[in-house]
Amino acid sequence: MKFDINNLDKTYIIAEMSANHAGSMERAKEIIHKAKEAGADCVKIQTYTPDTLTIDCHNEYFNIKNGTWEGENLYSLYGKAYTPWEWQKELKEEADKVGIDFLSTPFDKTAVDFLEDIGMEFYKIASFELIDIPLITYVASKQKPMIMSTGMASEEEIKDALEAVYSTGNRQVALLKCSSVYPADPKGMHLSTIKDMQKKFNVPIGLSDHSMGHFSAGIAVSMGAKIIEKHFCLGREIENPDASFSMTPDEFVAMTTEIRKIEEAMGQPFYGVSKDEESSVVFRRSIFTVDKVKAGDNPTDENVRIIRPGYGIKPKYIDDIKELKFEKDLEYGQPVRFESFQKGAILFLTNNENTYDLYEWLKGREEYTALMKQRVTLDQIKALEPSFIISFNYKYIIDKEIIEYMNGRIINLHISYLPYNRGSAPNFFSFYEDSPKGVTIHQMAAGLDTGDILCQREVEFGDLSKETFVTAYDKLIASIKDLFKENWDGIKSGSIKGVKQPQGGSYHTLKDFKSLTEGIDFNWNMNIKDALEKIKG
Questions:
Q1: Quick one: DSSP state of residue 521?
Q2: What is the pLDDT of residues 464-515, one digit of tens each?
Q3: Closest C-alpha to 505, from 434, 435, 424
Q4: Are 262 and 218 in contact (CB under 8 A)?
């Protein structure tokens, strides 16, 4: 697997050799082979000498006072831990032969130059070097991918490091959350920072994990980590500065296996019935007959219920079907489907109680009507074959396929004088733009509020200091109800023909409305004149 920082479709797992070669070239090669077998994508070394990291000095500043290496001197510790440079080209060739990526952490410019000479394809920056901006800039200038650990780093220090990379034109960078303690205590790792880093820095985020076991690595992957780095050894009994907090091959296998299982379980964002769940769908609840019904009966609380199994209509439609009529007799225990009902009803689609009285008026004049509040689908419409659909304060956008299927028989009652103020908040925009105010009944077309006009009426408003948006809306609602009652017979018979809307007009989105009103603590009970003065300044 070749490292592609912009295409991390699965977690990239790095086995950090560090000092675990314990001074043996053969052991270093064996680590490369074992890391590959354990599921690592990459094996990492470090490129330094004691002299490139520090100086040979034994005063108090250079002696380690606590932690895993307590009592060690920096110069002597690095002498025990470093990987001889003369090995590194051969180790890279061994990794290439095995088929595992090879990565190194340089600690000064001479190490970078050396790694360039042996063909290093990408670089790691250690947590302790994240504040070495000259080093980061030099590495970034090679225009190769970089992974930077962020142990101990403040948000400002991380930004400084990223800016150093970006200043060279290099945009190939990832960050690793890290706790620079050896071994790290999970309580102090603050893994929730991974999600915060994703938001703040907009680069791939991973985890350099110094804790024991693979618990933290698994959590990090579940939080979106794209890279996991863990120290790797052949056995902790092999004495070296890093053995005590490194993973053995068996432990590394357990971690990589767990990570791949976590990735499978996470999958991609998905809603609905998965392939594995298909056989379980029948155990959902649906609408069934719980008594015998006769052709022409309406569903009632006594003859239909929401029960398991799931062969019938979804429970949310229980109220929508109450005024439909069964097409034929059904026995006890039969699934109720939209195909179970007589065809030809007039469907009145609404979600607002202020429209119910108009529906009751229509119901009193027509033999077969149904009030529906849920989103209708094309399959339902094909099953019911309604003679007309009337949409009035209906919160759902009716699908284009339904509009085409009904072929001019969907009637929309719109609270504006079309073609003005199509879209959102027409009652507001008609006053804001001082455009003609009124109501329109039109045939529904694929474009929002663009269908042919059947009838419309202007509504006059006098002194706006005496009107609120609510009182104005109430007048418009009353006007469109009257308009519908006066013209329904002509609409139904076809004697009233649709007329194409005039060119021009206006269209507004909810975003337009919010951008105008967010600064004035807007509410619909505001006096119209006062609201407009505040908005227009």
A1: T
A2: 999 999 999 999 999 999 999 999 999 999 999 999 999 989 999 999 999 9
A3: 435
A4: yes
